[in-house]
Specification:
alpha/beta, 8-stranded parallel beta barrel, 11 helices, 46% helix, globular, binds 1-deoxy-D-xylulose-5-phosphate, binds the ligand NCC(=O)COP(=O)(O)O, EC 2.6.99.2, transferase, Pyridoxine 5'-phosphate synthase
Length: 260
């Protein structure tokens, strides 16, 4: 049975990368990210996100292929803008592909894709994916120039990188990063883009982001996997979804707008 806490209010994309990180740390076959994805769907995930890195440090090609026919929600495949990755994406055919920047030595995705600075390459990638029937999202910093470039590329979706907000070291910095994201959401909506967000979100910093009513979907992984160690995987997914929905419903009530 799939659990849905207020469907349509705000979507939770559960990122399963770090289930694979745990598996790969010991070269075992467990924990299985595919099992994690299916259980996350039962617990209320609206989609499953996974990042096939060029170095295959967590998710592997076999995970993506195994998961695609089993998912009951939708797959959001994150990958770099390389021909190898575009070809894999077109072969697997996920519902969504999110193009992300990658640096081999980084601990995690540091910053958004420079769409404005790599316009032709990103535009060609958007075309190849769209021709394969895949909805394209660009993982960008909350920046007006990047949003405009994303729209000009023909991407229907953007995911705003919330890492700087999550890593802010003072209340002032947190407030200023949140304001930056809020402005970017408004700009994205004005440009006709579907606006998603994610990176570094956890159980006590997600609320102000979920309250931004222009955001459709949040992709969250590391914090849910970490919380699952103590709470159990499905409880961790349910808890995150409930927090997001409560924050969104209360923002809608304050704005006097109906949910859904
Ligand atoms: C693009 C992105 O933000 C996610 O892929 C997330 O960061 C998890 O993957 P990494 O930890 O490998 O960056
Ligand atoms: N695109 C962001 C994502 O999928 C999850 O990032 P994180 O929660 O693992 O930092």
């Amino acid at each position: 049975m799939i659990f849905h806490a207020s469907p349509g209010v705000i979507d939770l994309g559960v990122n399963i990368d770090h289930i694979a990180t745990l598996r790969n740390a010991r070269g075992t076959t467990y924990p299985d990210p595919v099992q994690g994805a299916l259980q996350a769907e039962e617990a209320g995930a609206d989609l499953i996100t996974l990042h096939l890195r060029e170095d295959r440090r967590h998710i592997r090609d076999a995970d993506v292929a195994a998961l695609r026919p089993l998912l009951r929600t939708r797959m959001n495949l994150e990958c770099a803008v390389t021909q190898e990755m575009l070809d894999i994406a077109c072969r697997i055919g996920p519902q969504d592909v999110c193009l992300v920047p990658e640096r081999r030595q980084e601990v995690t995705t540091e910053g958004g894709l420079d769409v404005a600075g790599n316009f032709e390459r990103v535009q060609a990638a958007c075309r190849q994916l769209a021709d394969a029937g895949i909805r394209v999202s660009l993982f960008i910093d909350p920046d007006a120039a990047q949003l405009q470039a994303a729209q000009a590329c023909g991407a229907p979706v953007v995911e705003l990188h919330t890492g700087r907000y999550a890593d802010a070291e003072s209340p002032e910095e947190t407030a200023s990063e949140l304001a930056r994201i809020a402005h970017a959401v408004d700009e994205g909506v004005r440009l006709g883009l579907r606006v998603n967000a994610g990176h570094g979100l956890h159980y006590t910093n997600v609320q102000p982001i979920a309250a931004l009513t222009g955001i459709h979907e949040l992709n969250i992984g590391h914090a849910i996997v970490a919380h699952a160690v103590f709470a159990g995987w499905q409880n961790a997914v349910r808890e995150m979804k409930a927090i997001m929905v409560a924050a969104r419903l209360s923002a809608l009530a304050v704005a006097g707008r109906p949910a859904g």
